[in-house]
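Example record

One chain of 117 residues, shown exactly as stored in the release files.
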Amino acid sequence: MRRWMIAFVMLAMPLSAAAELAGHWTLSISTPRGEQNPTLEVVQKDGLYTGTYHSLRGPVPLNNVTTDGSGFSFDITITVPIGDIDVSYTGTIDGDTMSGKVVNPRGEVPFTGVRTR
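Predicted structure tokens for this chain:
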């Protein structure tokens, strides 16, 4: 009887604590030029994530999207008047919120995000 109870409890538990990155997100980034609020559209298909980052500079594709449990990372390349800038995001997801850091050639800043759909 005890074995059956343990098996039932184990089957009722989620097999993975992986957080879901797919969805629409609004980010908040405090920069030296003020608060920025880019958005993300992330899609999962066949176990792979793709998506688009939308900012004042327009939409750019997400590159090298990875997930590991509640952690995630992706890269973007933003075109500015002086050339292209590579930017990396790393963070964690907790339900419908995310937080982490943004790294670019000038340094790093924290960011937060909220799932909007």
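Notes: The longest strand covers residues 83-94.
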